[in-house]
Amino acid sequence: MVYVRKKEDQQFYEIPTKKQTVSRNIKIMNQSDIVLTPVSKGPKNITWRKVLAMVLLLAFVIALVVTLILLLQKDETPTNEIPSTTELQSELNCTIAETLPLDCKELYMNGIRKSGVYTIYPWEKTDPNCRPLQAYCDMETEGGGWTAIQRRVNGEESFNRNWTEYKLGFGTSYGDYWIGNDAIHQLTFGRNSSLYVTITPMNGSDLSFKMYHQFYLFGEDQNYRIQIGNSGSGNIGDKMKWYRWPFSTFDADHDTHAINCAAKYLGGWWFAGCHGEFLNGPWHSDDWSSPWYPQYSNGRQVNGTSMLIK
Ligand SMILES: [Ca+2]
């Protein structure tokens, strides 16, 4: 039904439909040809249709906006399936690890001559442990190219750590640190490495050092058992030449003594029953027993240590 509102009386009138009096085939010449029927009220049906249409349109717009907001939120929210930045970085580094330095020796061979902290890539890209490592490189001692696996310079880090911490490493490579037993295994196993131990004496006299050859560490499945072949040059005793023992920490006793050596002497090491040398004791303390017997029988005589490999 179609309606019209007359100006004269503001009254609504119903316009006849085509079926009634108006046809497409009839040309209306005069407005009086159309018979208007007054109706009591306005075009109620039209108003409701408009309202209904507006409601439907509004509902559609609201649904559209809500959908868009949900889609945007989904894009911004990280999920478990998305790798973290560290994982991506690690994956990236491992992917190109073949062209990057395995250790400080390779950096030295690439022309690096300044001692300091560098990034090394000990693992193959397919290794689940694959990750870049920050390591201190000694590029001056004994021909340079040495990777520090242990270094103590200021006593800021405690070396009384548990199995997992020794496994993965701790500390900061520009200060006190342990590079990690996994990394030592990876850097030495099957590689005929040399080990160079240094001790800085508290009394200001010359640096103590000792070289060993054929040094390597077995993997965690053998509790990082150490193997040392021949001893080389040095100005202190070389009892480490006989080392064949697994690693121990206070929470993993693998020594041959009835007691827990790591718990008693407050640090991780390749204890047997218990030790003659021990570089991981409490810093500047009488509790650090026999760092390197007989030259260093007490931790208060020691002002720095390092264990270097290449
Ligand atoms: Ca024991």
TrEMBL record:
What the entry lists under Pfam families is as follows: Fibrinogen_C (PF00147)
Q: What is this protein called?
A: Fibrinogen C-terminal domain-containing protein
- CDD domains hit by this protein: FReD
What InterPro entries does the database record attribute to this sequence? Fibrinogen-like_C, Fibrinogen_a/b/g_C_1, Fibrinogen_a/b/g_C_dom, Fibrinogen_C-term_domain
An annotated GO cellular component: extracellular space
Q: Where is the Fibrinogen C-terminal domain?
A: 95-310
Checking NCBIfam families in the record gives: GGGWT_bact (NF040941)
Record bears the keyword Calcium: no
Coiled coil segments of this chain: none
Is Repeat among this UniProt entry's keywords?
A: no
Organism from which the protein derives: Magallana gigas
Segments spanning the bilayer are 51-72
Q: Which UniProt keywords apply?
A: Membrane, Transmembrane, Transmembrane helix
- Per its UniProt entry, which superkingdom is the organism in? Eukaryota
